[in-house]
């Protein structure tokens, strides 16, 4: 199985810039000066070309020179070229008989012949080969708070070797430990703590003295040795919460011979701790003013001997040494306080359980993460070269400005295009041969690039000293005469100091104008321009200079262009009156491939967010935007449930880099959090909150399962309705019966009363 990267490139021919002809408006009086103005400029070395015109007219675009009568044979127009010097084919397997000759990058050496100002593309391929050897060094914090973790990993070697054996047949394991500098205020220094820092500590009364870093087991394939050494270890105790882990990481990286790192293996350094490390300058609390020198300082006992002599290393030094020795650093930590790791290339952070029970899973995850991506880094980058990349990952879409592809599957092929957009135009004396290196992060393989500059003209090889064409007092070179001191003119026919009215009139740009624009003297029908402390004054009438142009922050043409006769001529990739606006849009492309995430516009190489509430380098963050919930919904669907639009095209992991936290109960009262809801295909409701962490990472808290409310049972509804009707009917019937009964009784009572009165009256009549 392999992960491949193809990095194609192409030499591009510069297109003549529109607007003012910078070749003719420049100050070139020789072929070499002409070629430095712009890569589109060419020089005509034909002797009878441009008679009666200014010398600079020989410098022009090649097509213009042809139209003006210059024979193609006399046109000097060098172009850039690429030569592959070493191109060994890529390997397919990392272990076995070929493990010492594994090739993971192709080609290995190239040379570029580059014309100043030109742009060039070149290609390279990268492959993560199958069954590549792995060296894993386990660096553990042995402070007192890690005691339960030490108990957990006592049999780690056997279990880890078993799991890694499924990924590589060539695995070696090493072990080292650290605590902190054995000095105040980092450790307990009272006499009673010298031999036992835990003296008087009731929970754990015995421990070993504090130490900076101790290398215990060199890398070996005998994993039982790892178990044996770990079982011998005891914890120590330091005074403050931060540990001296950075001292240990640097020693593990630079002490290559003692640690046993192999050149032909993947180097993985696992750093296990439960707290943050001390950083550079913290050592000054203990009086350590000497910065770390980045060297190995392990003594005969394999202990860090400079622990109490030098400060802690800086992040920059740590990143440099890790990259220099091709080491991937994996932080296995119990706290989410390692945001600084983004400053160290090739690092990953995994959250460790309190007792390190999940350490094997973290190591396997870190290994798979490393093997699933390719990222290029540039070493010894020359200041006068600009280098950019365009990556094409597994979805086939080019991504300008990216130099890595992540979340690759076995067999995926990706591509990137390294490009040299332009070389800053400086004197060719300064453009000596340069070299730089391109290497994938963590790989030993590299591409060495040598750059030569095409500064010379071919016609200069035929220069004629004291040529009769130059009145025998000058050198004829590339169609022009370079006169001896004291002589001037197109053919060196005049001496300095000769003047006449005819010569003076030829030195005025127009009637009424100053002679030589007031910035030179007229001699032999030509203007000799004054020297200036600000730059060069030039032109047929000294009307031009290279310093009267717009500036940005005090820098002429912003440093991204050349001043020609009062106007900035911008280098490729820059525009504007003072060339301060970059046309590069790669920095504006968001992870989903949109320009500024569709919420802004790219202005001068940076996103200007126009959507209210949007922010971030590519306007990718916008909790209050109307589409915020919809955008994050796709990531929830593909990351948690492997469904939705992003699940099919395998771009989920690349586009969805937010931190997603599955929860049982959703908290909606967190400040700054936006509650999002959407209806799933099965009519359930999925809820999640979206917020932005202070570190810049988007946090999504989502329910583990959508909320589904069952609809009413039709039969139960029918029974309830019918029952309700019957009940109401019975109640009405009972009420009606009660009313009738009461009414009948009242009527019967009236009848009885009337009957009694009738009998009484009849008995009275009879009497």
TrEMBL record:
It is a single-pass type I membrane protein. Belongs to the integrin beta chain family. Residues 629-713 form the Integrin beta subunit tail domain. Residues 22-71 form the PSI domain. GO terms for cellular component: cell surface; focal adhesion; integrin complex. It is found in: Cell membrane. One of its GO terms (biological process) is cell adhesion mediated by integrin. It holds the Pfam family Integrin_b_cyt. InterPro entries: EGF_integrin_1, EGF_integrin_2, Integrin_beta_N, Integrin_bsu, Integrin_bsu_cyt_dom, Integrin_bsu_tail, Integrin_bsu_tail_dom_sf, Integrin_bsu_VWA. The keyword Membrane applies. The chain crosses the membrane at residues 714-736. This is Integrin beta. GO terms for molecular function: integrin binding; metal ion binding. Residues 30-457 form the Integrin beta subunit VWA domain. Its main location: membrane. Disulfide bonds join 31-41, 34-70, 44-59, 198-207, 255-296, 393-405, 455-459, 478-516, 483-492, 494-507, 522-527, 524-557, 529-542, 544-549, 563-568, 565-596, 570-579, 602-607, 604-652, 609-619, 622-625, 629-638, 635-708, 656-684. Keywords: Calcium, Cell adhesion, Cell membrane, Disulfide bond, EGF-like domain, Glycoprotein, Integrin, Magnesium, Membrane, Metal-binding, Phosphoprotein, Receptor, Repeat, Signal, Transmembrane, Transmembrane helix. The keyword Glycoprotein applies. Residues 737-763 form the Integrin beta subunit cytoplasmic domain. The gene is ITGB5.
């Amino acid at each position: 199985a392999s992960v491949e990267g193809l990095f194609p490139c192409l030499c591009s021919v510069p297109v003549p810039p529109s607007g003012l002809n910078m070749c003719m408006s420049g100050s070139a009086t020789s072929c070499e000066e002409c070629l430095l103005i712009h890569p589109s400029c060419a020089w005509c070395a034909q002797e009878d070309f441009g008679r009666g015109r200014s010398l600079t007219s020989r410098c022009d675009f090649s097509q213009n020179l042809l139209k003006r009568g210059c024979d193609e044979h006399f046109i000097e127009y060098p172009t850039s070229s690429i030569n592959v010097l070493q191109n060994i084919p890529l390997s397919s397997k990392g272990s076995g008989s070929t493990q010492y000759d594994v090739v993971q990058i192709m080609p290995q050496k190239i040379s570029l012949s580059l014309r100043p100002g030109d742009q060039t593309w070149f290609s390279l391929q990268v492959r993560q080969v199958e069954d590549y050897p792995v060296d894993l060094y386990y660096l553990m914090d042995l402070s007192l708070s890690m005691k339960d973790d030490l108990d957990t990993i006592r049999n780690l070697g056997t279990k880890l070797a078993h799991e890694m054996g499924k990924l590589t047949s060539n695995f070696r394991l090493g072990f080292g430990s650290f605590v902190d500098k054995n000095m105040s205020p980092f450790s307990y220094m009272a006499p009673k703590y010298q031999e036992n820092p835990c003296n008087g500590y009731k929970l754990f009364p015995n421990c070993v003295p504090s130490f900076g870093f101790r290398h215990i087991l060199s890398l070996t394939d005998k994993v039982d040795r790892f178990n044996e050494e770990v079982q011998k270890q005891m914890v120590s105790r330091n005074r403050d919460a931060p540990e001296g882990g950075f001292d240990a990481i640097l020693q593990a990286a630079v002490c290559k011979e003692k640690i046993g790192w192999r050149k032909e293996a993947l180097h993985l350094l696992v750093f296990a701790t439960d707290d943050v490390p001390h950083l550079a300058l913290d050592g000054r609390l203990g009086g350590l003013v000497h910065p770390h020198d980045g060297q190995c300082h392990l003594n005969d006992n394999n202990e860090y001997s400079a622990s109490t002599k030098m400060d802690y290393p800086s992040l920059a030094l740590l990143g440099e040494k890790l990259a220099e020795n091709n080491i991937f650093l994996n932080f296995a930590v119990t706290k989410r306080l390692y945001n600084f790791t983004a400053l160290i290339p090739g690092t990953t952070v995994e959250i460790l359980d309190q007792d390190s029970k999940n350490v094997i899973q973290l190591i396997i995850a870190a290994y798979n993460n490393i093997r699933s991506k390719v990222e290029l880094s540039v070493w010894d980058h020359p200041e006068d070269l600009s280098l950019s990349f365009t990556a094409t990952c597994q979805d086939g879409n080019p991504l300008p400005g990216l130099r890595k592809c992540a979340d690759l599957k076995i067999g995926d092929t990706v591509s990137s295009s390294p490009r040299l957009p332009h070389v800053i135009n400086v004197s060719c004396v300064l453009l000596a041969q340069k070299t730089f290196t391109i290497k994938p992060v963590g790989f030993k393989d590299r591409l060495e690039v040598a750059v030569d500059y095409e500064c010379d003209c071919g016609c200069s090889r035929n220069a004629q000293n004291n040529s009769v064409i130059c009145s025998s007092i000058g050198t004829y070179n590339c169609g022009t005469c370079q006169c001896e001191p004291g002589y001037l003119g197109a053919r060196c026919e005049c001496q300095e100091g000769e003047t006449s009215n005819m010569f003076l009139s030829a030195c005025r740009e127009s009637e009424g104008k100053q002679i030589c624009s007031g910035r030179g003297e007229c001699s032999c029908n030509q203007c000799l321009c004054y020297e200036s402390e600000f730059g060069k004054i030039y032109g047929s009438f000294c009307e031009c200079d290279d310093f009267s142009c717009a500036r940005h922050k005090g820098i002429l043409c912003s440093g991204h262009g050349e001043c020609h006769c009062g106007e900035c001529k911008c280098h490729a990739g820059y525009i504007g009156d003072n060339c301060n606006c970059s046309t590069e849009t790669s920095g504006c492309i968001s992870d989903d491939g949109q320009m500024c995430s569709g919420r802004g516009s790219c202005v001068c190489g940076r996103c200007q967010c126009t959507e209210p509430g949007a922010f971030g380098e590519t306007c990718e963050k916008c909790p209050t935007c109307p589409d915020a919930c919809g955008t994050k919904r796709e990531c929830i669907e593909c990351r948690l449930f492997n469904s939705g639009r992003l699940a099919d095209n395998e771009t989920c992991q690349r586009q969805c880099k937010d931190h997603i936290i599955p929860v049982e109960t959703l908290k909606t009262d967190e400040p700054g959090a936006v509650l999002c809801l959407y209806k799933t295909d099965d009519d359930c409701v999925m809820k999640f909150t979206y917020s932005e962490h202070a570190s810049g990472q988007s946090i999504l808290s989502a329910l583990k399962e959508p909320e589904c409310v069952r609809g009413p049972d039709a039969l139960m509804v029918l029974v309830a309705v019918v029952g309700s009707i019957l009940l109401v009917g019975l109640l009405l019937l009972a009420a009606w019966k009660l009313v009738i009964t009461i009414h009948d009784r009242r009527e019967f009572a009236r009848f009885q009363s009337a009957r009694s009165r009738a009998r009484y009256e009849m008995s009275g009549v009879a009497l």
